[in-house]
Specification:
heterodimer; A: 422 residues; alpha/beta; Rossmann fold; 3 domains; 7-stranded mixed β-sheet; 5-stranded parallel β-sheet; B: 442 residues; 2 domains; 18 strands; 34% helix; globular; ATP-binding (chain B); ATP binding (chain B); kinase (chain B); ribose-phosphate diphosphokinase (chain B)
């Protein structure tokens, strides 16, 4: 009975391993000797075969590269780790595998560096386009590449000056549609007019919806946006235009992981943004940072002609604080929040926001505030004044947008990109 | 129409409040004094009238103050109608309202700190017949913002249940981009896109003034009727009073023939015996407009064309390079250059120089829309043009100054059109010369 089971084991081993021929030969010899010599030699043969099987297993794992082990060289190790990140293909600038010749990436005037970054991550060049102004201020546009039958990706955040950039985007879409592009995807990392998303008083427009209707009417097939001010904007587009709302937190999380934070606490600057702060906290925890807390500020109008009051819910004493918001406009609320947190004993105050508009007195306010560092993304291009401000750090979302384009182009799921959990 | 940042610092607000209080105090004092004077004068006037004409009637009293019936105006006729104006041309809007005898609707058009437009309509519009007047601002002053303002204003009115919205657009930007010249290097048909945007956001009808290309009406869907107001008749009346000699109407280029011929027809109809001349050029049409993205002519593409020059000799077009010619004799004549838009003024400058060289006596120019981009007014001042006639479809900025400039008002014409659209009577009658002549006589 022992010998029979040993034989079965050995036979299985022999059929599976084609490469380890020497061990198979040894096993064959072992079976023969087992038949001939009996139990004592069987024990020897079994031990040899077990050793062979383990060696063979290791070989297989090494080939597939799935398991990181100490005996595999360090380069392979690094690769294996990277590929856990959903963005690995874009980070390594892999070209689009399928139908690369059928896509065309065009950029408007609003953020050319970002568009170049995106194209670079996809291993492509930007399409050629001439976008200028006539003498009377009208948009003058001409696309120099052929568009027929191509999937076109138009990269144009509608950042300030909003109306000019919006008009450029609208005319670009209609031009592509009229020249027989197969599919038009508008990539709008910053969606202007997003904050006018409901009627705050009577007889006002719902500008976010109006802009959506304009973009849709011009003939867009798909919209990719980053951190829309409110998710309902996806519904302002009709059902024929799917909207992908990417989250830039995935970029911010990586940055703050290397910041050496002590007792980090994520703060939402108002009651409406708690879900955003919660998501950020979850992201930090799942990336191995334990002991991350959450707090929020509640802004109250104390009365006419009185300075607004801010109340802190939660404790921030002696900890590093990150204020998480979607955009920074005039930075009034943000700087006030930073001062309030500092008053409550916060150690360092950081801020993370996807869109840094920095309009009006924003930069002066930030310079005068106790904010340690303000981290924004390049969804809105920075001007010289912003670049001079040492407290502002700009991260690039090119890799995120590039990966979204890659997935859309190859008809893959975008689900991984929304996981803030690693 | 008040403009300014939606956000203000508290200190600025306080300062503003303080100054406002001061002004208010001064204002109230002044108003009291002025009111006292007016009251006295008015009472005196009433007494006079009472004594001479209306001895038996009791004067009407409003709020305890005596009022003559002269001051009362019947408003019922247009009470259903509201006119709102965007920020680009408030003066024209007020003029139209004055002609109609109604007050301008109250609306706020401002900008947020990041440049987004904030619009709020302050008057009630439910069930009303609403007119929105918005033109393009003068050159390089944020054309797109002005257009966006019109769109958002329309949407705000539509969302607050206005019955019918008419966009009154004296100068529609992007109306010149109506063609794709090279299919393999596409350019937008922006005029069509703009029409589509307007109809998407709920415009029910559109009133335009001398739109660049009359085919523009076809870009709007059938449920959005377009009235294209012809303002040439105004200029014709103006020239009729000028006592010109040997009039010749001149087109500035190949594309302007249609418009010039219409003007010539009008002149003939009012009894001016006019001739017709034209500038002809061999340059490709797409390069007509300055700032066009690309001027590409494949070499030899014009080689087959042969023309006959003024001297009567045959010449190959390609051998001449890019050139313009004047076709027609203008020696000793009063010339009227006719165009629809004067933008950079370079074509007008060139045409006027040609005419002067050919021996023209006086040179007038008429263009409906004075866009006046950078350097335009300097060119006009330097050119041999004696008089330039434009309309107030685009408000003229303060820095534009020229002795040669005459501005005709389209306010009355627009007011009459709005009145006719409101009362559902014929609009086409308006553009007949007889009608306009009658208006001028009155």
């Amino acid at each position: 009975m022992w010998s029979r089971s040993a034989c079965r084991l050995l036979r299985g081993c022999a059929t599976h391993s084609s490469t380890a021929q020497s061990s198979v030969a040894a096993c064959q010899a072992a079976t023969d000797s087992a038949h001939r010599l009996g139990v004592t030699s069987l024990l020897v043969g079994a031990s040899v075969c077990v050793g062979g099987a383990a060696w063979w297993e290791r070989q297989r794992y090494r080939q597939s590269g799935r398991v990181a082990r100490c005996d595999i060289n360090t380069n392979a190790n690094a690769n294996a780790n990277n590929h856990r990140n959903p963005l690995w293909r874009s980070q390594e600038r892999k070209p689009i595998e399928k139908k690369i010749e059928e896509s065309l990436i065009l950029s408007g005037n609003s953020n050319v560096p970002l568009a170049e970054g995106i194209a670079n991550h996809l291993g492509k060049k930007l399409g050629s386009i001439q976008l200028k102004r006539f003498a009377d201020g009208e948009v003058s546009l001409q696309i120099m590449d052929s568009l027929r039958g191509k999937d076109v990706y138009l990269i144009q955040p509608t950042s300030p000056p909003v109306n000019e950039h919006l008009m450029e985007l609208l005319l670009m879409i209609s031009t592509c549609r009229r020249s027989s592009a197969k599919k038009i995807t508008a990539v709008i990392p910053y969606y202007g007019y997003a904050r006018q998303d409901r009627k705050l008083s009577s007889r006002v427009p719902i500008s976010a919806a109006d802009v959506a209707r304009l973009i849709e009417t011009m003939g867009v097939d798909r919209v990719v946006a980053v951190d829309l001010h409110c998710g309902q904007i996806q519904g302002f587009f009709g059902p024929r235009v799917p909207v992908d709302n990417l989250e830039a937190q995935i970029i911010g999380l990586e940055y703050f992981l290397n910041k050496n934070l002590q007792k980090p606490i994520i703060v939402s600057p108002d009651a409406g943004g708690v879900y955003r702060a919660r998501k950020f906290q979850e992201g930090l925890i799942s990336r191995g940072m334990d002991d991350v807390g959450i707090a929020m500020l509640i802004k109250q109008r104390a009365g006419a002609n009185k300075i607004d009051r801010m109340d802190l819910v939660g404790s921030v004493r002696g900890s590093d604080v990150i204020i998480v918001d979607d955009m920074i406009d005039t930075a009034g609320t943000l700087c006030e929040a930073a001062r309030e947190l500092r008053k409550h004993g916060a150690r360092r105050v950081f801020a993370f926001a996807t869109h840094g508009l920095f309009s009006g007195p924003a930069l002066d306010r930030i310079e005068a505030s106790p904010l340690e560092e303000v981290v924004v993304t390049d969804s809105i291009p920075s001007n010289d004044r912003v670049r001079k401000c040492t407290r502002i750090t700009q991260l690039s979302i090119a890799v995120l947008v590039a990966d979204a384009i890659r997935r859309i182009h190859q008809k893959e799921s975008l689900h991984d990109l929304f996981h803030t959990r690693a | 129409m008040s403009h300014g940042g939606a956000e203000q610092t508290p200190r600025a607000r306080r300062a503003e409040g303080l100054s406002f209080a001061l002004f208010a105090a001064v204002g109230i004092g002044g108003a009291w004094l002025a009111g006292w004077g007016v009251k006295r004068r008015r009472m005196a006037h009433c007494e006079e009238r009472d004594a001479s004409e209306l001895p038996d009637e009791e004067p009407a009293t409003v709020g305890g103050e005596e009022m003559s019936s002269d001051y009362y105006d019947e408003v019922a006729e247009f009470s259903e109608m509201k006119i709102f104006a965007g920020s680009s041309s408030p003066e024209l809007a007020r003029e139209i309202c004055a002609h109609l005898g109604i007050s301008l609707g109250r609306a706020f058009c401002g900008k947020f700190a990041d440049g987004e437009i904030a619009v709020q309509v302050l008057d009630e519009v439910r069930g009303g017949d609403v007119y929105v007047l918005q033109s393009a601002p003068h050159s390089e002053k944020d054309t797109d913002s002005a257009f966006m303002e019109l769109l958002l204003m329309t949407s705000a009115l539509r969302r607050s249940s206005a019955k019918r919205i008419t966009a009154v657009i004296p100068y529609l930007s992007y109306a010149r981009q109506t063609q794709v010249f090279e299919a393999h290097r596409p350019r937008p048909i922006a005029a069509a896109d703009v029409a589509l945007m307007l109809s998407t956001l709920g415009v029910d009808r559109v009133i335009l003034v001398d739109v660049h290309n009359p085919r523009m009406e076809g870009f709007f869907p059938t449920e959005v009727p377009v009235h294209n107001i012809d303002a040439q008749a105004l200029a014709v009346q103006y020239f009729k009073k000028k006592h010109l000699e040997k009039v010749v109407v001149v087109a500035t280029d190949n594309m302007g023939g249609e418009r010039t011929k219409a003007f010539w027809n009008r002149l003939t109809r009012v009894g001016i015996d006019a001739g017709l001349a034209s500038m002809v050029s061999n340059r490709p049409e797409r390069s007509r407009r300055e700032g066009s993205p690309l001027v590409l002519t494949p070499p030899g593409s014009l080689a087959d064309h042969t023309i006959i020059t003024q001297a009567g000799e045959k010449k190959n077009v390609a051998s001449l390079g890019r050139h313009d010619w004047l076709v027609g004799d203008v020696k000793g004549c009063d010339c009227i250059i006719v165009d629809d838009i004067i933008d950079t003024g370079s074509r007008a400058f060139k045409t006027a120089n040609f005419l002067k060289k050919a021996g023209a006596r006086r040179i007038f120019m008429y263009a409906t829309h004075g866009v006046f981009s950078k350097g335009a007014i300097d060119r006009i001042n330097k050119s041999p043009i004696d008089e330039l006639i434009v309309t107030n479809s685009i408000p003229l900025p303060n820095y534009i100054f020229s002795e040669k400039l005459r501005v005709l008002s389209i306010g009355k014409l627009l007011a009459e059109t709005i009145r006719r659209v409101h009362t559902n009577s014929s609009v086409s009658v308006l553009f007949q010369d007889a009608f306009i002549a009658k208006q001028h006589m009155a």
